[in-house]
Structures are given as structure tokens and as C-alpha cells.
């Protein structure tokens, strides 16, 4: 099958489009990216999405408009990605997409009550004529799961090693982790969960630091502040066992503002606030690997925005040494298109009515298919080809 996957990162800057060829079925499923693009959001749409994701009351009219606009952006990106790959829409079997989250509501006990993502997939189907699969989180949540992180099952299919247990660490606005026992570790289940802070907290603290006059910054103030670190680590979420996910607003700007105010009240030097935030982010990941992996992690795949954050990437390598840290490129894959490939893989599995998650990955009661399928002009052909 030719499947187009689309995904928007947490930084909300681009739509990642991957035209993929996927064949077979687990455990012999094969997925290859034939062509990929990173398409910038239109500036006005990027601002609309940013505004609607803020922790304030949402105007329903604004929500309707931006939901439609994101769907149109996905449709245009699909057509652009297909053309760049040298295909026509009639040659594509499926589109799989996941829009940006605007709310992910989690109770204090970890139960996910609701989750909403932007982007009307019906617009993609109408513009392209291609059967589209979207809205993957909702059935997982209905089955008692977290609905996030969404790509654990795709990683389980695509990234396991024969001999080594791998941890895939997605360092975006927040951090998530997928732990993949080796193929030889028969019967050991994978684990996926959101870990805690990612690049959003560090970026927000860096912005605070850059706004200060240079005279207020002193060399030698970059040490980790133990009192501030203890304050950060005192979190019920960090102690909770997976599967687990974070509220949409966790470890973002409002948290950074609270952290900055607390640090100033206890006289932490500004540069030390940043260094402590970086060390806290690293500590959350190392603690998660140690506490929650069913078997020792022997290799780490660093993915997401954080892989190109030099200070954070260096600190992660130091903290995890001697465990090797690699990227998707070391496995012959493209980091920038990896999540779009995962989305295409989930759409492919959903179309074949096969599981897109496991209870150990999200907490859903069963291994179930996910996603809502919107029939396109090729729907009857796909039914006949797949089911006879």
C-alpha cells in the first residue's frame, strides 16, 4: 500500500509529510519512506493554533474556524507531498494524520478524561479523494487508555532490535519514552509513557534569561541548585508508574513562570535556574529508564527537537554513559519524517482492523484498532483489494 502520513510537532512550526510504502503484517510488516517534506505552517494559521492552545477559555467560533483551517492545511500538504513523491492522488491508498492537541485533560489520579486535536480529516478526504484515518486517541481513551504517547505501537513494529532493549526518547515540548524489549526477550512487554519536561521548559527559562541585562549574569553561577532540584522532583506524576500522560499544559510556559518565581524567592542565580532545569529534564529521563523499564536499557534512540539542542544532548550522553545514544539516522531512517511514518503505519494497521496499541503501552483494556476511517473515492477499491 502507498500511505501518506502527516504529523505536526509540539513546536507547531511545520507539517511533516511522508509518502510511504507499507507491506505485510506483523511481525513481518515492512514500512519505507519514499519521499518526505517539512511544510511550514502559514504564519496566520500558526498564530491561530498557538492562541487556541493557551490555558484560557476557548471561543467556540474560533475553535471551529481553526479546526477547519488546520484540516485545509493538512489537505494542501497531502497534495504537495504526493506531487513531490512523483505520484498522483489516485495512486495513494490511505492518508493517516494526527493534528495538534489543544487539550489533554488528566485527573490527579492519572485517568484521562478527554483529549482534543485540531484538523478536520474529512477535508483531506474531500480534497484528495483518498480514504483517511484520523482521531486515533479517542478509542484508546474510551477503552481506559491514556491516548498518549501515540506512537508506541508503531515503534514496537518498526524499531525493535534482535538483541538489545532500546528506549526511544522523544524530546519535544515535553518528553515521552517508548521502551522496546529485544526480540530475543520473548514475553517481555513494551512500555510507553510521557516522562515529564522536554524542550519547552528549557526554552522558556532561556527566554527569561536572555531578557535580563548582562550585568545581572555572573560567571560561576551555572551550578545546579540542589534546593531547586528537590522542589522540581517533588511531583506525584514523576512517581506514578506508567502508562501515564501529561496534561496539555504541563511543563510549559506557566510552569516555567512558577519555577522562575520560586527560584527568585529562594535567591537562585539566573544562570543556575537554567542549568537546574536542564539537569531536571535529564534526571527525569534517567530515573524513568531505571525505574520503569522491564529489562535494562542497552541502547537509546534520541528523537525530536531535543536531539539538536547541543547542551541538552551532551548532558543526556553524559548521564546515560556508557549506554550508547543514537538517532534514527543510525538505523537508516530520517528523524524528521519518523513520526509521519509512524502515523502512516498506524493508519495501515487500522485499515486492516489490527491492533494499534497494547495495554502495556497506553493502559487500554485490550489490544485494539484505533482511528476513525473516512471513506474516499477509492474506498470500494480498497475494500475489494483487502477483503475480497
Topology:
Layout: E1 2-8, E2 14-23, E3 30-40, H1 43-52, H2 60-84, E4 94-98, E5 101-106, E6 112-117, H3 121-128, E7 131-134, H4 137-142, H5 152-158, E8 166-171, E9 174-180, E10 191-197, H6 199-210, H7 226-233, H8 236-239, H9 253-265, H10 270-292, E11 299-303, H11 310-320, E12 325-326, H12 338-351, H13 359-362, E13 372-374, H14 379-387
Parallel strand pairs: 1-4, 4-7, 8-11, 11-12
Antiparallel strand pairs: 1-2, 2-3, 5-6, 7-13, 8-9, 9-10
Helix pairs in contact: 1-2, 2-3, 6-9, 6-10, 7-10, 10-11
Short description:
With 388 residues, the protein is of the alpha/beta class.
How do the helices and strands follow one another from N- to C-terminus?
A: EEEHHEEEHEHHEEEHHHHHEHEHHEH
- The strand order across the widest sheet is 3-2-1-4-7-13
**CATH fold-level name of the largest domain:** Nucleotidyltransferase, domain 5
CATH classification, class level of the largest domain: Alpha Beta
Quaternary organisation of the protein chains? single chain
Structural class: alpha/beta
The CATH H-level homologous superfamily of the largest domain: ATPase, nucleotide binding domain
Query: Largest sheet at a glance?
Result: 6 strands, mixed
Mean model confidence by pLDDT: 93
Strand content: 15-25%
